[in-house]
TrEMBL record:
Entry keyword Hydrolase: yes
GO terms for MF: hydrolase activity
Keywords recorded for this protein, A-Z: Hydrolase
InterPro entries found in the cross-reference section: PseG
EC number: 3.6.1.57
Protein name (database record): UDP-2,4-diacetamido-2,4, 6-trideoxy-beta-L-altropyranose hydrolase
Highest taxon of source: Bacteria
């Protein structure tokens, strides 16, 4: 097999990590498949429950065995806020990854999307003929990669990776490269100009939502007390609060819970307002010009949400921990009375993301099949 025709992804997901990293890697792997490229996902064994989900997309999975016992504190790398995402040392993870790569039949690209891994890991995993793509949005650590992808909007994007990547590294920066599933492009083509009136609200906080921000948003919508308001509530398969959310939604006359929904793009197109958090969903909402009231549920979302607010594309209320259902309710009421503001939010968002990021990234990696039809100029 031609090495160029296989890509190896190193990524994890969990309730604490969320599903965003895995989602964007799956999106890229699906796009690469259109050019005949196979993808193998290397995931730690604590993510075994997601293996069938990845395999259902036509990709293979190899699980990296977690240590039997927690690693000793003496081996902990000081200064990393995300080290707990890795149940072993980066050295051991790199050794396991290298062994899996050597036994995979060869690959043209190693693609890593993991906050607990950095340039040391990438250097240890280097192989002749294998190029490395690092997907990041923190800019808090060095990388030893050939291409770096940061799909977020932020201040000083052109300089934030200065001295953190090799001089020869190709940097793909900004929402122009946002990795979105093709259904978002399809729904974008069907989108009509929004009037600014709010008749349908979408509540979605991603795949896990460990602090149950969804319930807070449902309570806020209920407090507005508009019987004719349609409300779609999307929760992930790993959401631990399903029963309580269903009970809350039963009090909404036109509320509906969607568990593990595969039609999120259509739900976003049909909605007039969204309530949610940052991450991949930010770019999905932008692609469809969906006005949004947002909070951050992790520190790494603050920069992008602040930039989106500065661009007039979202109403950003701050950290979820400090935002109450009453605060959300007040924000909804204010927008109900201001269709001009709602329309402006949607238009600003729509202008930021065209949904062709996956195609552009494929082209930058040297894959120019159907997936790489978009211009990279």
């Amino acid at each position: 097999m031609n090495n160029m025709q296989q890509a190896i992804f190193r990524v994890d997901a969990s309730v604490n990590m969320g599903m965003g990293h895995l989602t964007r890697c799956l999106t890229l792997a699906n796009a690469l498949a259109e050019s005949g490229t196979r993808s193998c996902f290397l995931m730690r064994s604590h993510a075994a429950g997601l293996a069938s989900f990845v395999e259902s997309h036509g990709h293979s999975v190899r699980l990296l065995l977690d240590p039997r016992y927690a690693r000793d504190s003496d081996t902990t790398d000081a200064g990393s806020n995300y080290e707990r995402w890795l149940p072993t040392t980066w050295q051991h993870d790199a050794e396991q990854t290298s062994q899996a790569m050597d036994g995979s039949g060869g690959a043209g690209w190693l693609i890593v999307d993991h906050y607990a891994l950095d340039g040391r890991w990438e250097k240890a995993c280097r192989r002749e003929g294998v190029r490395i793509l690092a997907i990041d949005d923190l800019a808090d650590r060095p990388h030893d990669c050939d291409v770096l992808l940061d799909q977020n909007l932020g201040r000083s994007m052109l300089t934030r990776y200065r001295d953190k990547v090799p001089e020869t590294c190709r940097q793909l920066l900004g929402p122009r490269y946002a990795l979105l599933r093709p259904e978002f492009v399809e729904q974008r083509r069907l989108s009509a100009n929004r009037s600014g009136r709010i008749c349908r609200i979408l509540i979605c906080y991603g795949g896990s939502d460990p602090t149950n921000e969804t319930a807070k948003a449902v309570q806020a919508v209920a407090s507005v007390a508009i019987p004719s308001m349609k409300v779609d509530v999307v929760i992930g398969l790993s959401n631990p609060h399903e029963n309580s959310i269903v009970r809350l939604c039963s009090k909404l006359s036109l509320g509906k819970v969607h568990r593990g929904a595969d039609d999120v793009a259509e739900l976003m197109r049909r909605a007039d307002l969204s309530i949610g958090a940052g991450g991949v969903m930010s770019w999905e909402r932008c692609c469809l010009g969906l006005p949004a009231i947002v909070v951050d549920i992790a520190e790494n979302q603050v920069g992008a949400l602040t930039a989106l607010a500065d661009a007039g594309a979202v109403q950003y209320l701050g950290s979820a921990a400090s935002v109450t259902s009453e605060t959300l309710g007040d924000a909804i009421l204010a927008l109900l009375d201001n269709p001009v503001r709602i329309k402006a939010l949607g238009e600003a968002a729509f202008a930021l993301v065209d949904g062709e990021g996956s195609s552009r990234v494929c082209a930058e990696l040297g894959f120019r099949g159907r997936a790489a039809r978009a211009s990279v100029s």
